[in-house]
């Protein structure tokens, strides 16, 4: 699937790009010297010597079989690139498959989304694109280096996941911050509240990631138990917690669809 492939990340020293590079390096999928990074300065920074670094994006394309685009979407229009004959994977928010093909010259294009959690192999990276079976296997293997991955039906779903799972810790951190604020306003010291909430979300994430029960299953189990947590959950539901979440995610999706300009 990836044996013998050379892979390049354009924008590989930005926040997301660094994470993608780290995930690929840690995965051991690529042979030494088969990972390229292009950035505007051409500086290596903290990248290991095994990574080839260039300021010339076209040089990267010439040396790679797969090109990953991880630049700010507003900068894509200024990128001078001919990636014809290459498999192009974009993790840029809001840039359509049609525009990717038009600007890059590539006929094999994939639109994906990931997150900085890729550096730890903990990202969810959905993707879509009209490609053949061999490329499908390559894309799946590469994105799996960053955590979990799934092929989705169309670009509109990529935009939903850009809002939902791209901004790690994002919306989860917002809920954690609300819980910590609840505790501190009731007299618990900020440091203890912070410790408690961090541990809560760590354990909850582990339980939901490893078990067969869905998040909704966990909620229903607590409701059925009819204890103190049930009272809180039912009160949140009655107050419209789903509506608040919908409003926030819809706003993020709307921004995703505008961000590329």
From TrEMBL:
Its main location: cytoplasm. It catalyses: L-proline + NADP(+) = (S)-1-pyrroline-5-carboxylate + NADPH + 2 H(+); L-proline + NAD(+) = (S)-1-pyrroline-5-carboxylate + NADH + 2 H(+). InterPro entries: 6-PGluconate_DH-like_C_sf (IPR008927), NAD(P)-bd_dom_sf (IPR036291), P5C_Rdtase_cat_N (IPR028939), P5CR_dimer (IPR029036), Pyrroline-COOH_reductase (IPR000304). Residues 7-94 form the Pyrroline-5-carboxylate reductase catalytic N-terminal domain. Its EC number is 1.5.1.2. Residues 155-258 form the Pyrroline-5-carboxylate reductase dimerisation domain. It is found in: Cytoplasm. Catalyzes the reduction of 1-pyrroline-5-carboxylate (PCA) to L-proline. Belongs to the pyrroline-5-carboxylate reductase family. This is Pyrroline-5-carboxylate reductase.
């Amino acid at each position: 699937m990836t044996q013998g492939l050379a892979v390049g990340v354009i924008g590989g020293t930005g926040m997301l790009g660094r994470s993608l590079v780290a995930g690929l390096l840690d995965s051991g999928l690529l042979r030494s010297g088969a990972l390229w990074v292009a950035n505007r300065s051409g500086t290596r920074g903290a990248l290991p010597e095994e990574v080839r670094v260039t300021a010339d994006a076209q040089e990267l394309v010439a040396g790679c079989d797969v090109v990953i685009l991880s630049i700010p979407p507003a900068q894509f229009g200024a990128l001078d690139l001919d990636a014809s004959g290459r498999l192009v994977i974009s993790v840029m928010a809001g840039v359509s498959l049609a525009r990717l093909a038009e600007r890059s010259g590539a006929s094999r294009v994939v639109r994906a989304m990931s997150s900085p959690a890729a550096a730890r192999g903990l990202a969810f990276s959905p993707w879509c694109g009209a490609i053949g079976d061999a490329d499908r296997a390559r894309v799946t293997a590469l994105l799996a280096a960053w955590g979990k991955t799934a092929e989705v039906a169309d670009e509109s779903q990529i935009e939903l996941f850009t809002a939902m799972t791209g901004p790690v810790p994002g919306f989860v951190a917002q809920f954690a911050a609300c819980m910590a604020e609840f505790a501190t306003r009731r007299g618990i010291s900020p440091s203890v509240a912070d410790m408690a909430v961090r541990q809560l979300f760590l354990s909850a994430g582990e339980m939901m990631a490893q078990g067969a029960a869905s998040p909704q299953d966990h909620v229903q189990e607590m409701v059925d138990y009819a204890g103190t947590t049930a009272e809180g959950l039912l009160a949140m539901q009655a107050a419209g917690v789903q509506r608040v979440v919908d409003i926030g995610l819809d706003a993020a999706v709307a921004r995703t669809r505008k961000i590329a300009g």
